[in-house]
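Let us work through a complete example step by step.
Step 1: write down the sequence.
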Amino acid sequence: MNLERRELTERKATLEKLAALVGGEVAGDGLLEVTGIAGLEEAREGEITFLVELKNLPRLEKTKASAAIVPLSLPSFIKPVIRTPNPYLAYAKIQAFFTHQPYCPKGVDPRACLGRDVKIGQEVSIYPFVFIGDRCQIGDRVVLYPGVYVGESAQIGEESILYPNVVVMNRCIIGKRAIIHPGTIIGSDGFGFARDGAQYVKIPQVGIVQIDDDVEIGANCAIDRAAMGKTWVKRGVKTDNLVQIGHNVTIGEDTVLVAQVGIAGSTEVGNRVSLGGQAGVVDHIKIGDGAMVGAQSGVAQDVLPGQIISGSPAFAHREWLRTQAVIPKLPEMKRLLSALEKRVKALEEKMQSKG
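Step 2: predict the structure and record it as tokens.
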């Protein structure tokens, strides 16, 4: 086991304890102690690994791990296992158990710059070169890493973590337990301009961004402040890196936005929506609850709740799959069509000559 893995592995737990943690059942020695979790190839003796898909069973059979998390459908296995309906979810919970580090507040570093009338909660960790503007409110156990900028009258809810070089512009609101990764900007001006002949006149963007509790924002994202009112990212939303959310957009609860998604202004995205990587969404439309949008799709009209769409322009996913299956055959189809056209023309000329 390398040094990095030893640093993350300071706990031990029996299979019975881990099974109780994830709501699984043990088959084999429930008192077996494990010291960490790793992938099928990387796992070593004393660790537990996990199998998500049965097609990877040959890899599991070769693993050096002492135990495994497996689906309920897995047949009997020579090593002790934890059976669970969702091995990937179980992996996430057990990984969190082994890597959790107790929070040790560092206080406010003297090299941080605090404005006037700033309210700082208890047990915070504010690192060097953080800037906090006037009248800001920073909740209990908030962590602000070096280079974070918090504009005037902004609010950061308790237990939120802002990684290096995150920017929260004036008056924006971050909820509790939010995680914002490096380089993300919350509250930059929305893209609003009015035409004046051949020129563009900037529309003042005077709204805010509100991010609710338990949201996680990836690295180098941009969430624009509203022209008026608020751009709203609701509870439990998760975004990948390089996501753009335009002004006055609303993102519903527990929605997932994969890398390089772009959402234009005033669009409403429902709860539990999934937008695949590089999907683009035009302005002023609605995407219903539970909808799924495939990667690189271009969404130009409303999407019904629960609908699955793909393509650019996007349409029903199953129809898109059928369309994609035809595309490689188009050159041959064109060749056959040209041959048929020649034969039809020859027949017509033959009939005309006989007539």
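Step 3: interpret the result. Helices lie at 3-8, 15-22, 57-62, 87-99, 317-326, 330-354.
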